[in-house]
Amino acid sequence: MHNLRNLIDPEFYEAFYAPDIAEPDGATPATVYGSGDPLAGFDVDNTEGARQPSQHRLLHYLRREILPTTFCVGCGGGTVLNTFATAIDEMKIDPRDMVCVTGIGCSSWIPSPYFLCDTLHTTHGRAIAFASGVKVMKPEMKVIIIAGDGDIAGIGGNHLIHAARRNIDLTVFLVNNFIYGMTGGQVSPTTPFGARTTTSPYRNVEHPFKIAEIVAAAGASYVARWTTYHAFQLMESMQTAINTPGFSFVEIISQCPVSFGKLVGMPDAVTMLRQFRDTSIHIDETRDMSESELEGKIVVGKMIQRSRTELCESLRQINHDRKIELEKELSGAHKKRDTSSMETGR
Ligand SMILES: Cc1ncc(C[n+]2csc(CCOP(=O)(O)OP(=O)(O)O)c2C)c(N)n1
Ligand code: SF4
Ligand SMILES: [Mg+2]
User: Fold this and answer.
1) Spatial separation of the C-alpha atoms in residues 195 and 233, rounded to whole Å
2) 3 state DSSP class of 307
3) Does 142 sit in the ligand 1 pocket, CB within 6 Å?
4) Which of 32, 320, 340, 344 makes the best surface tag, with the fewest CB within 10 Å?
């Protein structure tokens, strides 16, 4: 058993961690982590002036040494990563001003390891708790969470609603593929009623959360829902969410053909995207519709956008007010001491 030591002590690191992560003899990090050349296999157009894949404007947002991604063929994770990188690129945000926080699951891999910025890959369901700590200590950073329905709406559901209630300036992109994808397709809090999954082989008898509506009701400043079919609207919504002060949340309906689609008769991405297209309805068109008319529909668009006091701002204000009060108290105490020493002649 190792003694409990200071984790940032270099000696401790050398003794206990370095041997574990050392590369095998002769191997470079590239051979350990990926193909080493993310562009291997691309058809390169050698005609003069043709744009080369290595010049793709989004490539420098990615950790190239770990590409290609481990997402299954047709997974919506790639679309979300692409849309997110495009949003950041268009907004001209320097990735050094961002921290991406994530939990556990396929969707958690979108920012970590693939997006090249400071990333915090935390325990299952705890991304928002870790992110809140980052935001309080580094309020100038953009703190963005990307993770799955199981992670954020399931095990981390309580963190989600309370962060929305506090209105802390975090941006959450919840990738809702209706399932615990990474672990093989267990029922999640967003699995549709009646759907077959590995843990509900007959049918799901639980009703799903309408998670975007819950977050809106809990007090978030911006809430929207889009699908991977609506890549352009999703990208704009991501930008609005990132720009909104306070808690912002976008539910991204995404396809997992492998752990979910194949069990519900949609074994490939195209079928799932068609279904997203055909069952989506814009929120503006739903005002006069009853709940039964909305059954089975995906309501997309902006649920709420409002302005409320943000948590870190309130904390800073308290610090500021308290500092002024303390300074006044101290200068009052000094004055009192000076007067009394003059009176006593000491
Ligand atoms: C505390 C804990 N419980 C369970 C697991 C196992 N686990 C890993 S990923 C995962 C499901 C993730 O589902 P979701 O967040 O929806 O992400 P997806 O893979 O669908 O993108 C589970 C249950 C874990 N890692 N830690
Ligand atoms: S299991 Fe599903 S969510 Fe995970 S990588 Fe494969 S398709 Fe994507
Ligand atoms: Mg999921």
Assistant:
1) 28
2) coil
3) no
4) 344
